[in-house]
Design a protein that fits this description.
Number of strands: 10
Order of helices and strands: EEHEHEHEHHEHEEHEHEHHHHH
Strand content: 5-15%
Shape: globular
Strand order of the largest sheet: 4-3-2-5-6-7
Low-confidence stretches: 1-9
Mean pLDDT: 95
Radius of gyration: 20 Å
Helix content: 40-55%
Distance between the termini: 43 Å
Length: 299
Amino acid sequence: MSSVIVSEKKMSHITVLGLGAMGSRMSAQLLAAGHKLTVWNRSPHAVQALIDAGAHHAASPAEAASGAEVVIAMLRDDEASRQVWLDANTGALAGMVPTAIAIDSSTLTPGWVRELGRRMQERGISFLEAPVSGSRAQADAGQLTYLVGGDAPTLARCLPLLQTLGSRVEHVGALGHGALAKLATNAMLGIQVTGLAEVIAMLERQQANTSEVLNAMAKTSVWAPVFTYLSSTMVQRQFAPQFPVELMEKDFGYTLREAGSNANAPTLAAAHAVFQRARAQGLGLENMTSVVQLFRAEK
């Protein structure tokens, strides 16, 4: 993995496809940086604030991509990515010119990323996969970490744009490797979430002073930086979504597909089962840390 430090010409006309929790925040950052911005979203609820801030709203991905130098997608999954880019009537690829660059920052499977790359190449479009590590607070602050797959020349052209949105840009390899890096990152996060949830529930069940025990643990070498955030939301029962359960569950499914079988990744499979159970119990839209509710004595 290498950090890219090259800087090139600033892009001016950007399109963002998908205005969920991350896409809307990325769009706001691009407007603040002075870019001409066109946006599209499947539902209109997230569009108005960006229009009020100066963005242009397009009726379809194809219309949104027309004339853009860079088209960025931030979508839910493979299926949404396929439809938004490749739909025969409304897909963004149909509206792009060969000098444009396509960037997909969604969390996708490596196989779909490579297929999408082939489809882009057929049309003469340069393509990067650039999934991000970080949540809403990092997107608001322009502090995302990009895990980029694709060729170095295309990345060099896009670097100033990515640096507007992120504090680190890591080039991890060819197309598909960014998806692998993002899935591996989220899998490790999910394992930490489930382990910490079980430990906190155990402490509560044993009537320990949970906060004091966690503070002591934080002074040991086993305490990861993210544990402070994860544990505080669990102890304080604050589950407003930053990374919802349903998306973590989806990502574990993708990761296990790459592992080949549950037998090849039993720890990942066990964590996946926790998030599946949480969705089944109605926690899908809550923050990932809400899985602690599955283990509390009063559940």
